[in-house]
Amino acid sequence: MSEKADAMECVKARELFPAFDEQKFPPEVLGHLEGCEECKAELSEFRALSAGLGSLATADIQPPSWLLGAITERVAETARRRAVVEGARRQMGRVTTGASRQLGEHRVATGSALGLAMLAGALLFGRTRKHGVKAAA
Q1: pTM, whole model, 2 decimals?
Q2: pLDDT digit of tens for each residue in the chain (137 aa)?
């Protein structure tokens, strides 16, 4: 049999490993397992892994004793940080509100002036590039 055919048989056999009860394997897979050491080794690893995973389902896993304290401290630290941030936001909200009232009607004028300045800059920049004039650095 060619190496490629052996590889195909290995692939087909390994696809059936999840049903590793020998009674569920077709006779040709059992025959392949008798002659293929690589597939035997892989089936053995699969069985060990499956048994290990199966034992996890019934295992009583206890967290380390320090974990609860670490989680509690982390939650408390997060709450303290949020309180500081929230306090700063409230304080900034008061400052911003006061500044906004002072600006009031000047917002429209300020925005218009900024827009005109940007338009003039764009026109000037376009003109200097068009005429080959180097802009001052």
Answers
A1: 0.38
A2: 555 556 678 888 888 887 766 567 788 888 888 888 999 899 889 888 888 888 887 878 788 888 888 999 999 999 999 999 998 888 887 655 555 555 555 566 677 777 777 777 777 666 555 555 555 54
Interatomic CA distance for residues 92 and 88, integer angstroms: 6
Sign, CA dihedral 39-26-32-35, equals positive
- Gyration radius of the chain's alpha carbons: 37
**Domain containing 111: what range?**
68-130
Structural domain includes residue 98: yes
Calpha distance 21→23 (Å, rounded): 5
One-letter amino acid of 111 = G
Q: What is the DSSP letter of 25?
A: S
Q: 124: closest CA among 108, 115, 113, 135?
A: 135
Q: Where is 66: in which H helix or E strand?
A: helix 65-103
At 63, phi and psi to the nearest 5?
-70, 155
As for how many domains the chain has, the answer is 2
